[in-house]
Amino acid sequence: MKKIMTFPMGGVHPPDSKEYSNSFSIRNAPIPSLAVIPMQQHMGAPAECLVNVGDKVEEGMLIGKSTGYFSANVHSSIPGTVKDIQEIYLPTGMKSKVVLIELEGEFRKPGSKSDDWRSASPKDLLDKIVNMGIVGLGGATFPTHIKYNLKPEVKLEYFVVNGVECEPFLTCDHRLMLEKTNEILEGIEIINKIMNPQDIYIGIEKNKPDALAVFEQTIGAKGLPFKVMPLKVKYPQGDEKQLLKALIGREVPSGGLPLDIGAVVSNVGTVFAIYEAVCLNKPLIERIVTVSGTAVKTPSNLKVRIGTKIGDLIDECNGVSKKPGKIIVGGPMMGFATADLNAPVTKGTSGVLVLSVREANLAGELTCIQCGKCVAACPLGLNPTTLYKLVDHGLYEEAKAESLFDCKECGCCAFVCPSHIPLVQGMRLGKFMVKKQKVK
Ligand code: SF4
Ligand code: SF4
Q1: Confidence band (pLDDT; 50, 70, 90) for 440?
Q2: pLDDT in tens, 278-334
Q3: I want to staple 133 with a disulfide (CB 3.0 to 4.6 A). Which of 73, 96, 229, 338 is the partner?
Q4: Are residues 124 and 232 in the same domain?
């Protein structure tokens, strides 16, 4: 029997609430009549907009060109006409230029599956990932080509596929693993060809026994050299630092990357996007989104075109069943609350949650009682209450010196805080202010 692993320090056990949507197969969301496509939907520099108002675009056409190495291409998710180009704020708080495309014209016919990658060079495969605008779909949206572009002298020890999906309510990765097992495995083979790691692990938490079983069986049947690694259910195990600590027992250094400890991690959604890019010549123009929460009538997993409005997804799920307390883009622990139903789905949107007033936990903030629960819950060994107080007093540099930038904004501290102190918002504000002062 396999050992079931986890990370050793901190973490929490929120109710996983997966039962609302995990039995629903992925279905297509409606094609948006107007797609709102941001140039900034990845970590790094925004893409440069290549189109003007009035231009005709095709489905999958490059409309935003990456502006350097730390950036990513953006493609049109629908065929149509560019109606407007605006600047908007996304639910993440980030300001972005967006291209508004009105649906018009023909969709491209899906190409037949190609196996040409088996004779392609690693460089050609990496170029494909760049061209198709692939970024991490687990939420961080880190451009994938940067992770995979290893220096010739680097011998990668571990490639880890992240199938943890530890955020409550989200089941998009779970459904993808069940419904696209073969495609994900072929995606891993492609990545194996690019980086040639010594070991490949697929990390899945025990609350997805069907996904663990289907990967074990299919890998065995195909004779692939990949190892399925069951993990205990604990949040935030899906964070790459915690996942690596759990699986390989090594710690990513402060300010460092998984590569510093010999590993690269990619989410299962990213691996599937790589399969589609390489085998189907398909740019990243759609993704799976979980629409859930107790205030949504029909929780679902939807295949969604980038640029679809989140309000349209809630409508597709038959609207709300009770008064919503909060709408969150992403998961309840790390996502962003929004009141803007016109906000578009981006490459990083894993979920749209409509929480009831009770779930939204709108209790008012009380004084810190120095209980220390936030310190015990932090998986990174930070002192959230001290960091919050420093930020609250405008002492941003002091907060930085206390490792503010190590905070992954996982929300464990806020989850356990009996005084409902908005600790994560404090961390975000502190980081924003440090960066702002640096720019000045
Ligand atoms: S949000 Fe930051 S400070 Fe709070 S528990 Fe997570 S990593 Fe620690
Ligand atoms: S959990 Fe909340 S009340 Fe307790 S020490 Fe941390 S901030 Fe203060």
Answers
A1: low
A2: 999 999 999 999 999 999 999 999 999 999 999 999 999 999 999 999 999 999 999
A3: 73
A4: yes
Contacts of 260 (CB under 8 A, 6+ apart): 252, 253
| Smallest-distance ligand from the CA of 413 | 1
Rounded Cα distance between 262 and 248, Å, is 10
Q: Are residues 122 and 166 in the same domain?
A: yes
Contact 266, 162 (CB under 8 A): yes
142 in the same domain as 256: yes
Q: What is the distance in A from the centroid of ligand 2 to the CA of 85?
A: 45
Residue 370 Cβ inside 6 Å of ligand 2? The answer reads: yes
Q: How many Cα atoms occupy the beta-carbon half-sphere of 398 within 13 Å? A: 11
CA dihedral angle for residue 245, residue 251, residue 255, residue 256, rounded to 10 degrees: -90
Q: Is 368 in the pocket of ligand 2 (CB under 6 A)?
A: yes
pTM check: above 0.85: yes
Out of 222, 245, 280, a domain closes at 280
Q: Determine the Cα–Cα distance for residues 337 and 176; give it in Å rounded to an integer.
A: 25
Examine the domain organization and report whether 214 and 338 are in the same domain.
no
Atom 3 (ligand 2) nearest CA: 368
Nearest Cα residue to atom 6 of ligand 2: 374
CATH number of the domain that 60 lies in?
3.10.20.600
> Tens of pLDDT along 206-239?
999 999 999 999 999 999 999 999 999 999 999 9
Q: Which of 252, 280, 308 is the last residue of a domain?
A: 280
Closest CA to 342 of 101, 110, 34: 34
The amino acid present at 321, given as its one-letter code, is S
- What pLDDT, on a 0 to 100 scale, did the predictor assign at position 365? 87
Give the domain range for residue 411: 373-439
Q: Tell me how far the alpha carbon of residue 35 lies from the centroid of ligand 1, in angstroms.
A: 35
Nearest CA to ligand 1 atom 4: 413
408 in contact with ligand 1, CB cutoff 6 A: yes
For residue 392, give Cα distances in angstroms to 144, 398, 408.
Answer: 35, 12, 19
